[in-house]
Amino acid sequence: MVAISEVMATALQAYRVGNLVQAEWLCNQVLEQQQTYVPALHLLGAIAQQTGRLESAIAHYERAITLDPRHAEAHGNLAVAFQERGEWENAATHFQRSLALNPNHAPTHFNAGNLALTQKRLDEAILHYQHAIALNPNYARAYTNLGNAFRAQGQLEAAIVQYQQVLTLVPTDAQAYTNFGNALQAQGQPEAAIAYYQSALALQPTNAEVYFNLGNAFRLMMQAENAIAHYQQALTLKPYWAAVHSNLALCLQEEQHYEAAIAHFQQAVDLEPTDAEAHNNLGVMLYEMNELARAIAHCQQAIDLQPEFAEAHLNLSMALLANGDYHQGFREYEWRWQAQDAKQPSLPGSRWDGSALEGRTLLLYTEQGLGDAIQFIRYVPLLARQHRVLVECPNPLLRLFGMIPNVELIPQGSSLPAFDVHLPLMSLPYILGTTLETIPHQVPYLSVPADCKWSIADRTHSLETSTESSSERATGKRVDPPLRLGIVWASGLPKDPRQRRFSRNRTAPLTAFMNRLRPLKVELYSLQVGVHAADIARYGFQTCLHDLSSQLRDFGDTAAAIDQLDLIISVDTAVAHLAGALAKPVWIVLPFAGDWRWLLHRKDSPWYPTMRLFRQPSPGDWEGVMAEVVQALEERLDHEHSS
Fold first, then answer.
1. Which residue in 45, 47, 313, 343 could disulfide with 335, CB within 3.0 to 4.6 Å?
2. Of the candidates 63, 59, 50, the residue with the CA atom closest to the CA atom of residue 14
3. Topology of the domain comprising 481-642
4. Cis peptide before 444 (omega within 30 of 0)
5. What is the pLDDT of residues 136-176, one digit of tens each?
């Protein structure tokens, strides 16, 4: 009869070469002779674990440990099995017992580190990996996971050192190149990361993860075409990867391929229906396509999944407001502080809740853009009639807002006088319960400051215009004064990076304005300030467009200029708000999906009675919307000429 030890030796050899069926059969033969033979029970547990039969593996390990409580390797393997089954506490217990019995076993330290890394106990994971490496300096997998733990802690330089060590030990380790690239990308070095990803791809040309990472790196470098191509390749290899669909959709959205973006966002949601971020992204994209009902549904779904998801609340608010639901929309808009980078100032006293002031002093402070301040300052005169109201105000608006009666202005950044309650200006519609029907729309509610009276005629020189035909000059016939038209074509750049894409959508090329307006019998005046004022010289329009930018020191001067013009045509900017607040005729040229305050499918604004809205017929179509503007302008000119 063959000795049990010889049979077990044969079983172990079969196990090592991967002949698990023979190894299992031999172990069972041993147990038929001796049911309590621990090495056979332990090996059966390892075979069952390797073939995915966790329940059987755990049973064999537990039987072995019952018979030999000091079997360190059985404790370690049982811990791994419990970890695979998600029983982390049991796993931790048996790792501790295994290491107490054999503290110098590198694989157990490695596996215990993996459990700690999974549980995000990073310091503990790092210690275990370092123990494993101290016991086995050539333990490449331990270096890899130690690097991953350092990267999870944000210690990117330390992570890179570990990945370098892996590549020293195993130069063909594709995952090490990928990890190295991930660390470099986290350091803000996407170009360097790309080189490592490409090395990984040379070793594993069908690795979808590497294509995904390359897509992310190219997107960070603003190389949209390359990013899209690599995301698409990742999906070719792994079609049901929700994160790739999401990132591809974000890239397509930035490139204004809206229908394709919606399709991939929808795929991401279908694949991961409990992913709040995916629902939020789809909601934003649907908002940009004016599909407000669907946008609201997906933003609400994101909130249902993650109730404190501030950005989803903010996006929901904008969709609700654009849809005319001011009651719920302004309530949700209060999430803007948590969703954006801006922080509410730390102020004494309490936030005003709309209750009777009864002699208390109210401090209002501006936020976000200057146009927002101009729009919502309309509420202040209503409050200031009966109460003491202070307004903390940015310098460009001081002279303009100084014309509001009974209001004390404090320059932004100055020391604040005593007050009792405070509120951000844009929370007034919520606190006061504004609906579409109750918007304070009486204009003008602003006026030109007394010290801003200056003449456009005195500060501009004659330009070559088409206001007088050669036949009129030859006959000496009286020419009616031409229409004075002020234009603004570019929006400012918001501080919050997440709002910058919307700002870009609101900026038109100057050529889209001038190619349409220049042939008309009008005098053109630019109210554009900032970097885009240089567009006039850049595109050679100095001879037909008066540049007023040097005269516009603040919005008081801008108000004085607007007061002398007949009509303002502007993209969605503070100048448009100012013209509306001054009760000046103003036409706003809006992107396909305008800001929430302009609602949908309206040519008028409940906020500004003298305003007319023109919308792009399709995303990005400035030529199309300007054609509609010029048609309306020609009709106005014909009417004025005939009358």
1. 313
2. 50
3. Rossmann fold (3.40.50)
4. yes
5. 999 999 999 999 999 999 999 999 999 999 999 999 999 99
